Every structure is written in C-alpha cells, then in structure tokens.
C-alpha cells in the first residue's frame, strides 16, 4: 500500500521508529531502528511494507529498497514471519544471507532466532536462485543520515542495543554471553548491535 514515507524521525526505540509526516506519526517496525537519525532538520525516507493479518495491521520499514525486497522474499518462506524476517535483516548483510542460501549453508542460517534446521532448509528450497534481483538492485538514493541519537549516559547505547536484540528474539542467555565482550567500548547503539550480531553469528 505504501511504497515509502518521507518525514522526520520523532522517536527511536528498541523495536520501532515513529516517523512524522503531515501531522501523522507512523509507528514503523524496523530491523535496527538505530540506523535512523533523530534529526529535526533532516527529512528521512523509509521504505515501507504493510503487513495485514486477521488480528494485526503493522507497518514495517527499511533504510533501503533492497532490504524491503529481501523482507518480502523472506515472508514467502513457510515458517518465517515478520519478526523472524526482521531478525535476519538486522544482521545488516543481505548479501551474506543470500550467499548462505545459494551455498546451502544451513549452519549459518540456523544461528538466526527462530530458524531451525527445517526452516533453514525451507529457505534454501524456496529462495535459492531467486534472489538475483535483490543483490542486483540499483542503489536507491536515500536521505537517511548516519548520525545517531546519543543518550546522556555512555552505557545507554549498550542497553539500547541489547533491548533491540531481545526484541528480535535473541535469548537472555545469548545476550549475557556477548555483553561482556562489548562492555567498555565507546560505540553508537547501531555499532553495538552490529558487533553483537557478528558475535552471535560467529
């Protein structure tokens, strides 16, 4: 229904952003909300997908058109819902996920929350050879700025990152395992999320 929405980021949380457009605040669930910038002087383009179920209407958003296309492809796989697709995209490397599917690398795919051997096999069966249009997409110009909202306390970025990862389905046990390896670093929330995902997927 909505191809994209352009507006100002009014709020950034662990699971979603609020994008204000013409007096309406859209709550948009995203793989990693902290890639967006809460900057009142910058208009942001968010590529959106509206998901409708009997009991839910939700708006999902992505920083790039490539991510949006990959999200829709993942939703077509039996066993993967919107939350699972977000967790896969939060890894931030669609090309690596595509390589794993093309190479039938089940060991890599089962590291995502909610993806067991059966779902990993289904991903390979449904998507292998069908993702060329995702990696071949032209770079779509985006006004997303790589500036980040910096909380008052240095530790807040790490806490926000862990909350975001928990909302994607990573267990408390998994997060406790990687947290010590991230402490003491001076990173943005987005950087913490990316480093934590590298550790979780290794």
TrEMBL record:
One of its GO terms (cellular component) is Holliday junction resolvase complex. GO terms for molecular function: ATP binding; four-way junction DNA binding; four-way junction helicase activity. GO terms for biological process: DNA recombination; DNA repair. InterPro entries: DNA_helicase_Holl-junc_RuvA_I (IPR013849), Hlx-hairpin-Hlx_DNA-bd_motif (IPR003583), NA-bd_OB-fold (IPR012340), RuvA (IPR000085), RuvA_2-like (IPR010994), RuvA_C (IPR011114), RuvA_C_sf (IPR036267). It is found in: Cytoplasm. Pfam families: HHH_5, RuvA_C, RuvA_N. Homotetramer. Forms an RuvA(8)-RuvB(12)-Holliday junction (HJ) complex. HJ DNA is sandwiched between 2 RuvA tetramers; dsDNA enters through RuvA and exits via RuvB. An RuvB hexamer assembles on each DNA strand where it exits the tetramer. Each RuvB hexamer is contacted by two RuvA subunits (via domain III) on 2 adjacent RuvB subunits; this complex drives branch migration. In the full resolvosome a probable DNA-RuvA(4)-RuvB(12)-RuvC(2) complex forms which resolves the HJ. NCBIfam families: ruvA. This is Holliday junction branch migration complex subunit RuvA. It comes from Lederbergia galactosidilytica. The gene is ruvA.
């Amino acid at each position: 229904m909505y191809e994209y929405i352009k507006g100002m980021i009014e709020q950034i949380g662990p699971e979603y952003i609020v994008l204000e457009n013409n007096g309406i605040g859209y709550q948009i669930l995203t793989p990693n909300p902290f890639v967006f910038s809460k900057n009142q002087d910058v208009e942001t383009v968010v590529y959106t997908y509206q998901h409708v179920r009997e009991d839910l209407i939700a708006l999902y958003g992505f920083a790039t058109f490539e991510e949006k296309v990959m999200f829709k492809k993942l939703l077509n796989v039996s066993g993967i819902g919107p939350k699972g697709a977000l967790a896969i995209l939060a890894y931030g490397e669609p090309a690596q996920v595509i390589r794993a599917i093309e190479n039938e690398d089940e060991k890599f795919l089962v590291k995502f929350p909610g993806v067991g051997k059966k779902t990993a096999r289904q991903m390979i069966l449904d998507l292998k050879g069908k993702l060329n249009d995702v990696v071949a997409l032209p770079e779509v110009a985006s006004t997303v700025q790589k500036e980040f909202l910096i909380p008052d306390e240095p530790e807040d970025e790490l806490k926000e990152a862990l909350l975001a990862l928990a909302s994607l389905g990573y267990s408390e046990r998994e997060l406790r395992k990687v947290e010590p390896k991230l402490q003491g670093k001076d990173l943005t929330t987005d950087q913490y999320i990316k480093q934590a995902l590298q550790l979780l997927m290794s």
